[in-house]
From TrEMBL:
It comes from Malus baccata (Siberian crab apple). Pfam families: Hpt. SUPFAM superfamilies: Histidine-containing phosphotransfer domain, HPT domain. This is Histidine-containing phosphotransfer protein. It is found in: Cytoplasm, Cytosol; Nucleus. GO terms for cellular component: cytosol; nucleus. GO terms for biological process: cytokinin-activated signaling pathway; phosphorelay signal transduction system. The modification Phosphohistidine is found at H80. Functions as a two-component phosphorelay mediators between cytokinin sensor histidine kinases and response regulators (B-type ARRs). Plays an important role in propagating cytokinin signal transduction. Histidine-containing phosphotransfer domain (HPt) contains an active histidine that mediates the phosphotransfer. Keywords: Acetylation, Cytokinin signaling pathway, Cytoplasm, Nucleus, Phosphoprotein, Two-component regulatory system.
Amino acid sequence: MDRNQLQRQVALKRSFLFEQSYLDPQQFVQLEELQDDANPNFVEEIVTLFYKDSARLFQKIEQALYSRPIDFAKLDDYMHQFRGSSSSIGAIKVKNECSQFKEFCLAANADGCVRALERVKQEHQTLRIHLENYFQDMSEKERGYILGKGKLSN
């Protein structure tokens, strides 16, 4: 794939993430603006940290959700942390599902929390796949610029 094609592909994937409300353009662009030559993979590193932290928070949420009696305040605190992390990278759909989870916590609805957690995880995983594809293309684009070639090799 030539450099221009890859550049268009990266731009289309980025636009898709914004248009489909996977990412908040304003928040994500702010992250991108923090990236520079000294830290060229800053955004990818922040997203990677988000996913590592997510695994820890999911574990805590599940433990609290399946313990008896359920401490809905603790569940709400964990999800509040997760929602904040999601907001920091601009993960709109994930953040919105976290808000639904919060509503079920306030209503002390365990079944609703279980269903909402599954939707949070689903949106989280969907975003992960899209971001992995985006960052993979970004890496290929950067390698192409570094190599200074019109075509990229695998």
